[in-house]
UniProtKB/TrEMBL annotation:
Keywords: FAD, Flavoprotein. Residues 2-360 form the FAD-binding domain. NCBIfam families: PRK08243.1 (NF006091). This is 4-hydroxybenzoate 3-monooxygenase.
Length: 408
């Protein structure tokens, strides 16, 4: 089998890249180790930056997102029982974010790929990237019980932190920068309307808490646009900061609600609505960057090259930035014969990656209480939050980071 671009991984990055290349008239093959049902049910991020929303619309994958996603024009910060809303459009020239789960993005892009795009092979496990430093790289993979070889002009690894693409770059040529945080997120999904119509980020002496939401499945409301439904139609997604290594089952439902209520408490008597918890899990917190993001004709994208803690909602959006950069560079090479943009791929992506790493780190250290935090550090956190609440410049910096750094 031969193609111009071999794409390893059918997450949102790999699928979007295939769509971008298809629209540019460049052929590709996507290899995904899991089956279609797994990819379409894999729960991950749910906040799309303005740039991600714009790209999905531009490639023809925005119809259902516009119908069922929920536009958010701000977030609320809570600290010392105070509430402060950050108004995104007012601070960024009209930019916003959209609540639309990664699973739904994947469903939309899979449907487009199977209808119009090149081959998308599920249960095709990539075993190795070979010849990455030559003009004819290939991907050895197993599909339907047989080993096969996908010959390419370029390989893009969108296969995550444990995939084969990252391993194909010689360790002596890479630099790794990472930080593991001494806490994680206990996340729940609950059958109860969200207690607020925008995300709430709470800093508390007992630890961080996040109030989020998930839109209802459209089939439950066949005659209405989900975005037009009242907030009561949505279900709640909430998170608690917990010690690193916590087992989700150690927390009882009543205990979770009590702790959430404590951390979200306000001086104006705001109430947290409770309901049945349907899912419960713990997410570790980690920052990671591998440089460079290119080796020969192998290019890394998304989690294969970088990981951010979820506080800044940057993971999926960073992956989108990577594949948009690659698609533009390859299109430029095809049209002009110049590899200038391809040669600059790693440097171009890393500028945006490090800004997102910085923003995610800032949000994490602003809102989470370290296990060994001192009273001095507690007061510094409160001072930082007061600065955001009282300074338009500080508030604008947060709003610009949250809604997304430019894709160009």
């Amino acid at each position: 089998m031969r193609t111009t671009v071999g794409i390893i991984g059918a997450g949102p990055a790999g699928l979007l890249l295939a769509r971008l290349l298809h629209n540019a008239g460049i052929d590709s093959v996507v290899l995904e180790s899991r089956d279609r049902a797994y990819v379409e049910q894999r729960q991950r991020a749910g906040i799309l930056e303005q740039g991600t929303v714009d790209v999905l619309r531009a490639v023809g994958a925005g119809e259902r997102m516009d119908r069922e996603g929920l536009r958010h024009d701000g977030i609320e910060l809570r600290y010392a029982k105070k509430r402060h809303r950050v108004d995104f459009p007012a601070l960024t020239g009209g930019r916003s974010v959209t609540v639309y789960a990664q699973t739904e993005v994947c469903k939309d892009l899979i449907a487009l790929q199977l209808k119009e795009g090149g081959p998308l092979l599920f249960e095709a496990e990539a075993l190795a990237v070979e010849g990455a430093d030559t003009d004819s790289p290939s991907v050895r993979f197993r599909h339907e019980g047989r080993e096969e070889l996908l010959e390419c002009d370029y390989v893009v690894g969108c296969d995550g932190s444990w995939g084969v693409a990252r391993k194909a770059i010689p360790a002596e040529l890479t630099r790794v920068f990472e930080r593991t945080y001494p806490f994680g997120w206990l996340g729940i999904l609950a059958d109860v309307p969200p207690s607020h119509d925008e995300l709430v980020y709470a800093r508390h002496d007992r630890g961080f808490a996040l109030l989020s939401m998930r839109p209802p499945v459209s089939r439950h409301h066949p005659s209405k646009e989900v975005a037009s439904l009242p907030i009561e139609s949505f279900v709640s997604r909430l998170y608690l900061q917990v010690p690193e290594g916590t087992d989700a089952e150690e927390w009882g439902d009543q205990e979770i609600w009590d702790e959430l209520e404590r951390r979200f408490e306000t001086e104006d008597g705001w109430r947290l609505e409770r309901g049945p918890i349907t899912q419960k899990s713990v997410t570790p917190m980690r920052s990671y960057v591998q440089e460079p993001m290119r080796y020969g004709r192998l290019f890394l994208a998304g989690d294969a090259a970088h990981i951010v803690p979820p506080t800044g909602a940057k993971g999926l959006n960073l992956a989108v930035g990577d594949v948009v950069t690659f698609a533009r560079a390859l299109t430029y090479q095809q049209e002009t014969g110049s590899a200038e943009l391809l040669d600059a791929y790693s440097e171009t992506c890393l500028r945006r990656v490090w800004q997102a790493e910085r923003f995610s780190y800032d949000m994490t250290t602003l809102l989470h209480r370290a296990p060994d935090a001192t009273p001095f550090e507690d007061r510094l956190q409160l001072a930082r939050l007061e600065r955001i609440a009282s300074s338009r410049a500080a508030e604008t910096d947060l709003a610009e980071g949250y809604t997304g750094f430019p894709l160009d």
